[in-house]
From TrEMBL:
Molecular function GO terms recorded: DNA-binding transcription factor activity; methyltransferase activity; sequence-specific DNA binding; zinc ion binding
Keyword tags: Activator, DNA damage, DNA repair, DNA-binding, Metal-binding, Methyltransferase, Transcription, Transcription regulation, Transferase, Zinc
Required co-factors: Zn(2+)
Biological source species: Desulfosporosinus orientis (strain ATCC 19365 / DSM 765 / NCIMB 8382 / VKM B-1628 / Singapore I)
Family annotation (PROSITE patterns): HTH_ARAC_FAMILY_1, HTH_ARAC_FAMILY_2
Source taxon at top rank: Bacteria
Alphabetical list of SMART domains matching this protein: HTH_ARAC (SM00342)
Record domain HTH araC/xylS-type: where: 87-185
Name under which the protein is recorded: Adenosine deaminase
GO biological process: DNA repair; methylation
Length: 189
């Protein structure tokens, strides 16, 4: 849509009900009861029509005392929900790399299915989520191996690998060296 023709409140309401992305940037809507404003494509629960007010831009909504929705981020000029999901997933993976990977938990936290999370991750990164977690684990293991004072078993467990054999396999697949070879070289390989 993105043109500047005048659209009626009825058309705006239909766009809100259908979460029509074509109207994003054309107008915003606010919910009087919550004092939150959204893009027409916001996937939040459809409000009661009598509680909705329309705005031509985000600045007007803010001036009227409404705050931006945390789900659709109407105050951001560019909003790419898929990239937001990837960013949040990476944040979770970076914080929990040393625990057993639980894609079901992560996907529920992000409000997407496991399959959708994997698909988005592959589209926007060069990895599947498991490959990404493995990369983080190997990178952390490399840091610990350079220190030289921690046993390989302790490093494997500290970086979230289930077993020493799994650690050896993943480490060699990613670096071309065994953890022992890497440790002896202090990371100079």
């Amino acid at each position: 849509m993105k043109n500047y023709k005048i659209i009626s409140d009825y058309q705006k309401w239909q766009a809100v009900v259908s979460c029509d992305r074509d109207y994003d940037g054309t107008f915003f809507y606010g919910v009087k009861t919550t004092r939150i404003f959204c893009r027409p494509s916001c996937k939040s629960k459809t409000p009661i029509q009598d509680n909705v007010v329309f705005f031509d831009n985000a600045a007007t909504a803010i001036e009227s005392g409404f705050r931006p929705c945390k789900r659709c981020c109407p105050d951001n000029i560019v909003f790419e929900p898929e990239l937001e999901v990837i960013k949040k997933a990476k944040d979770i993976f970076n914080a929990t790399y040393n625990m057993q990977a639980n894609l079901d938990y992560v996907s529920r936290q992000l409000g997407v299915s496991i399959n959708h999370l994997i698909k988005l991750f592959k589209q926007h990164t060069e990895f599947t989520p498991i490959q990404y977690i493995t990369k983080i684990r190997v990178d952390k293991a490399k840091e610990l191996l350079k220190q030289g004072d921690i046993s390989i078993l302790e490093i494997a467990l500290a970086t979230g690998f289930k077993s020493l054999s799994n650690f050896y396999k993943c480490f060699k697949d990613k670096t071309g060296y065994t953890p022992c070879e890497y440790k002896k070289s202090r990371g100079e390989l």
